[in-house]
Amino acid sequence: MPAADLVLTGAHIRTLDPDRPHATAAAVRDGVIVAVGDDTDVRDALGPGTERIDLAGATLTPGLVDSHSHPVWGLEMATGTDLSAVRDLDALRAALRGAGRTEGWVIAWGLDHNAFGGRPVDRALIEDVLDGSPAFIRLYDGHSALISGAALRAAGIEGPREFAQRSTVVCDADGRPTGHLVEHAAMDLVQHVLPRPSYAERRARLVELLSAMAATGLTGAHVMDLGDDVPRLLASAEEDGDLPLRLRLAPWCMPGVGQEGIDEIIALQAEAGRLWRVGGAKFFMDGTIEGGTAWLEHADCHGQGTDAFWPDPAAYTDAVRRLHAAGVRTATHAIGDAAVRHVLDTVASLGESGRLAHRIEHIETVPDDTVPRFAELGVIASMQPPHTAYTRADHSDEWSKRLGGARAARAWRIRDLRDAGAHVALGSDWPVAHYDAREVLATARVPRGAAGPGQGLTGLMALEGCTSHAAVAAGEADRAGRIAPGFRADLTAFGLDPVTAPADEVAQAPVRLTVAGGNVTYRDS
User: What is the mean pLDDT of the chain?
Assistant: First the structure.
């Protein structure tokens, strides 16, 4: 056997390989696992240039993958004052009063809808603490923002607008904008006047962010966006060395797309670097429950939520079919029950060839008859357990109140989907929730708020959600998600066993080592 680049010994290895579920040693060469077993099985792989690491009893698992993240776009989303700890209007006003300025702007992010205490999101609640400064405050869900009067004037927003997608410039009874911008097209009206970090700053911050992610055990991420300059940004970062994480990026396919736009998405699938590649396309079938833009089968308590993000849902189905015919996998944001049902119906129309080629993101509330269809159709469920923290067990939060008791009681049916035979990939949706992979594992086992304890996964199910099921979601189950010869050398080592340790301990678990593509990207010093 040719000499390995890296040999790991002294480990408790959970391979997730049914042919050999446990081992104590593994060898890696050229970014691929070449041997798995005990010390005798890797002895022949040792050479003068081999790095040997004794894991001293640490648990080694397939590398953790965040199945829904925004590490590049999120650098812009998570800019300015962090409002994620704000719980009420007084705290919001205090935070904005003391917020720093960026080129004269107050920029903030991570604001929970619950902070408004049921009041309409309106700039009148904060104008007096801004001292006339333009302000852009992104709410935690990433689908809405609150901007000040000065920001409205800078962007030239004077009244309602019409969009090709479901987006709204919220206005009062007299047609004056309240500052509440709902969904991407409305928020994009401000982008051209917002301060923007330089290319060099974004490049440096991206590598720093990916390194921080690796320190939590992450070896990869399914990136649910692709900005215009992102391939160039990633290629530039790789000029200085390998990325700390393996990235799979999906460009957006939005309402109004024509054949030319479809062809552009297909052509983008060829873009790739050493540890990044474009793979698939991202759709939106609805928005968010708190924002009133989730597509529901019955209106929420405000009479909202009965419209799809695509004004013509049949056009969405047609776009998915055209991409599917070209071999492009799709991921569709669908939170409400009507949105989820439409995506399932769309995949059903593809026939057997649609199995395990398409996925639904979020799936926050669905009725009983929807759950078994995921396994029946081979649709992957991609869910973010940390999002449950934005709800409350007593249903006093904005998410629950909008839905009402019956629909709030069927929140985040992670365990129901697993028990029904579905593949469930797990992620954070950073920066909507923190990227820490250990928190994803922990909250998958003990969901918070409205989700309830009945939806908790076992330790093994949670680990599979960040490894083997994530590989299925990416169409990479033949080369990722397990520790076996011929599979990618993406590996995570913990100071405890994430399967058997209590969930609260997993959330704080020491990460001993992270390896992506055979390269050590983090080690506990």
Answer: 97
